[in-house]
Amino acid sequence: xxxxxxxxxxxxxxxxxxxxxxxxxxxxxxxxxxxxxxxxxxxxxxxxxxxxxxxxxxxxxxxxxxxxxxxxxxxxxxxxxxxxxxxxxxxxxxxxxxxxxxxxxxxxxxxxxxxxxxxxxxxxxxxxxxxxxxxxxxxxxxxxxxxxxxxxxxxxxxxxxxxxxxxxxxxxxxxxxxxxxxxxxxxxxxxxxxxxxxxxxxxxxxxxxxxxxxxxxxxxxxxxxxxxxxxxxxxxxxxxxxxxxxxxxxxxxxxxxxxxxxxxxxxxxxxxxxxxxxxxxxxxxxxxxxxxxxxxxxxxxxxxxxxxxxxxxxxxxxxxxxxxxxxxxxxxxxxxxxxxxxxxxxxxxxxxxxxxx
Length: 357
Fold this sequence. Notes:
Layout: H1 11-18, H2 22-30, H3 37-49, H4 54-61, E1 67-74, H5 83-96, E2 101-108, H6 113-124, E3 130-133, H7 138-151, E4 155-158, E5 170-172, H8 175-189, E6 193-200, H9 208-223, E7 230-237, H10 243-256, E8 260-265, H11 270-279, E9 286-290, H12 294-302, E10 307-310, H13 313-328, E11 337-339, E12 343-345, H14 350-354
Helix pairs in contact: 1-2, 1-3, 5-13, 6-7, 8-9
Pfam family, one: LacI
Organism: Thermophagus xiamenensis
Protein name: Transcriptional regulator, LacI family
């Protein structure tokens, strides 16, 4: 009996429901001996109806072969941020390997839409049961999501939510709400002046998750009637590797707006703004950004960055795979959106998050 007094299903119960012999159920569960496909399907259906132990059920499910999943993610070699979801995918594959799950990773350059298209095309030309993708390029992603949808290939999304073609699940943060939170944090730290929304990324108009963050940030001040106290401006930096050019853009910004009191960086590159503030000895300017990259952590602990919003990228990769497996292998009904918590990380609590990375 379970704690709730519910009877644990026995092989005999499964056999009676499926109208087969207990021996047939045993052979299906342990994948031994000969069982007709019709009998196997009846047993699996009965196991599901009786909520039979999932890991035992999976051993029977994988008897027909392996489940091949493709993971389309940015190459961690180009950006430290993507190392965490890469590891999350690895962790999920290790956990699900006992069920016959194999995950092949296809890596693309996050700064090159053509690289995304090339890797997505490779997946489309292969035979995969499911796909996990970080669709950071909106236009390019739509074409492939449409194609996979028409082909009946289940796919899950993480990092960026594109609901147009009904993914099995989106795993990640609510980008809009994280922008609202960033606005509240900056307003908490500074009650007036000019706040800068800094987009430091390629293809910004093609990055819907960044635009949603910006809109949430702006709406916070609008909905709280703070337009008179706070002036919001934006800056786009699509080439950030040339420090001289980046600093020139920031210099121009500070010349144009004398009362800049805060920055909101919409992705993991807060350290670029932080380095500039240190270099120019600009103090008492509040800085809010995302992600626990090593450069960001150093600036958080020194006080240059005030708040980091943790997007749990490892969890995104891990759950993206496991929920897709739940759908493919266990035939579970999956909620279409899995939002992860908006964790506010400061110098005072960062140690508890670093231990989890």
